[in-house]
Design brief:
Elements lengths: L31 E2 L9 H11 L7 H8 L4 H7 L4 H7 L2 H12 L9 H9 L15 E2 L1 H11 L18 E2 L4 H9 L5 E3 L8 H4 L2 H8 L3 E4 L3 E4 H10 L8 E3 L2 H4 L29 E6 L4 E5 L6 E8 L2 E6 L9 E2 L6 E2 L4 H7 L20 H6 L13 E5 L4 E4 L4 E6 L3 E8 L5 H8 L5 H14 L3 H16 L2 H9 L21
Helix pairs in contact: 5-6
């Protein structure tokens, strides 16, 4: 099982939402404008687009891009020579990104943009700097929205030094007992500001030091390739795109074990029961390096584990919803194993991020589970969820966030960033983990894990189940108690009926 952020989001061509509340406008370098401007343009300008697209003028623009995806580099370049309008389509960055990765894997040096990168790596003698080209406007909501997601400043949603927008509490000096009582047991997130102060990684993992020590070593990138760290940092320093590549390496502990010596796991998270699986345990730790706009779309952490995430450098925006509230724009399958989200993290922030004007003043902050009454009437897609603001924060260098089991979260790099994260299983979430392992995708681990747990701590699982049942019984409403009675075996059921006597009804 792979962490969702290991998977680069695939572009889903289709009509993408463009009704977000973010109004920042940065002109497109090739003159693309929203389609509404077409009706205010001169006749000559409208004719230019009509003639430039030829028969393609009747085809939706996302379909044109889908067709161009099937071309190789030479054919794509030739399409761009047909007209100025077709040249704009042929310069779409994702087209050249795909061609570059398919041609070179991770063995390339990024230069300026993806098209120029392909040419420069294919023809090492090529040294021309891409020139700015002036075009008559091309009116396309689809292409303009792609550019909008690429160009809008990430500071729109968070900046360092602005703690007033943070609603995840920051704590220092917690004892293990206090952390367990206030956050583990309540399943609530918290930022720990002092647990990384002794990490040598804060000095040793600067981009310069990492390039000097590990520059020629290859690391896994979420585009499905391995890149030399030196080349990846070159990419980070230059790129501006909607869905950047992200170094999301879960092999680093094996390929670069010396990195493990530069940090230590806080005592709050030392009890990791998944360690009992040894070499059979699923991926659980990741080295994270990426440019601004990289990150992870909305997900719950794999295998229903909890996690911690520590930032070495840069700043990350976190948005979190508790397990019982599905974030806007996110559509999980009934079993929770598949999640449909917007095409990119940037698109979610543009179209769904709840600004302070979007949520009524009475809106509440989420709790870990919500009230029993609210949960008993909740249905997927209820409008009530719109009145709950997420928890959010900007995480900076030297800060670590605790991500509780089952919480939805998305992470957006506001700046280039280096971080490390690890998932874990302990007494507080082990029953959730075991329940997930019972699904058909993880049955191979379920028996092994439960057997080793019983050998490690005899009777622990039975005790935790009993404690959970007792806690749930205390929270049951009257109707839930009735339903529980109805579901008992016949011999254990008590009789419960209503009798409305019509004779007593004088109306």
């Amino acid at each position: 099982f792979r962490h969702p952020a290991e998977l680069e989001p695939s572009r889903k061509h289709g009509q993408r939402a463009t009704t977000g509340h973010v109004n920042t406008y940065i002109p497109h370098p090739l003159g693309v404008q929203p389609e509404g401007n077409y009706y205010m343009a001169s006749e000559d300008t409208r004719d230019h687009q009509t003639h430039g697209l030829g028969y393609f003028v009747a085809i939706p623009h996302h379909v044109i891009i889908s067709v161009l995806e099937h071309l190789n580099a030479v054919d794509l370049a030739q399409v761009g020579m047909a007209s100025k309008s077709m040249l704009v389509f042929s310069r779409e960055e994702d087209l050249w990104k795909t061609i570059t990765l398919e041609t070179f894997g991770g063995m390339f040096t990024f230069q300026t943009n993806w098209r120029y990168t392909f040419i420069a790596n294919k023809l090492p003698s090529f040294s021309l700097v891409p020139a700015t080209i002036t075009f008559p406007p091309l009116y396309s909501d689809y292409l303009f929205h792609l550019w909008r997601c690429t160009s809008i400043p990430t500071t729109t949603w968070g900046q360092a030094g602005r703690p007033s927008v943070d609603t995840v509490p920051r704590r220092a000096g917690l004892s293990p007992e206090e952390f367990k009582r206030e956050y583990l047991d309540t399943n609530m997130p918290v930022i720990l500001t002092d647990v990384m102060k002794d990490w040598s990684a804060l000095q040793e993992w600067s981009p310069e030091n990492l390039k000097a020590k590990y520059g020629d070593r290859e690391f896994y990138i979420n585009s499905g390739v391995h890149m030399r760290l030196r080349d990846f940092f070159s990419y980070v320093e230059q790129v501006q795109e909607e869905m950047p590549m992200y170094l999301f390496d879960h092999y680093y502990g094996e390929t670069s074990p010396e990195l493990l010596q530069d940090y230590k796991i806080p005592p709050f998270f030392g009890d990791d029961l998944f360690g009992l699986l040894g070499e059979s345990r699923p991926s659980y730790r990741w080295l994270l390096v990426g440019p601004a706009r990289a990150g992870a779309s909305f997900h719950k952490d794999p295998n229903h584990t909890s996690a911690w995430n520590g930032v070495i450098s840069g700043y990350k925006k976190w948005v979190m919803y508790p397990p019982h509230i599905t974030p806007p724009g996110v559509y999980p399958s009934d079993d929770g194993l598949e999640v449909a989200t917007p095409s990119s993290i940037m698109e979610w922030f543009i179209n769904y991020y709840p600004s302070r004007d979007d949520v009524p003043p009475k809106a509440s902050r989420p709790s870990a589970e919500g009230s029993t009454k609210a949960r008993s009437k909740k249905r997927k897609g209820d409008d009530d969820d719109k009145e709950v603001r997420p928890l959010e924060c900007v995480l900076g260098p030297g800060e670590m966030i605790f991500v509780p089991c089952g919480w939805w979260h998305t992470v957006l790099n506001l700046t280039p960033s280096v971080a490390v994260t690890q998932n874990f299983c302990n007494n507080q979430n082990v029953l959730n983990v075991i329940k997930f392992l019972q699904t058909k995708t993880r049955k191979d681990l379920h028996q092994t894990f439960t057997d080793r747990l019983e050998a490690h701590a005899p009777g622990m699982l039975s005790r935790l189940v009993a404690e959970q049942d007792a806690a749930e019984a205390k929270k049951r409403t009257f109707w839930q108690t009735v339903e529980a009675e109805r579901n008992k075996p016949n011999a254990e059921q008590s009789t419960f009926t209503f009798n409305f006597d019509q004779a007593e009804d004088s109306d």
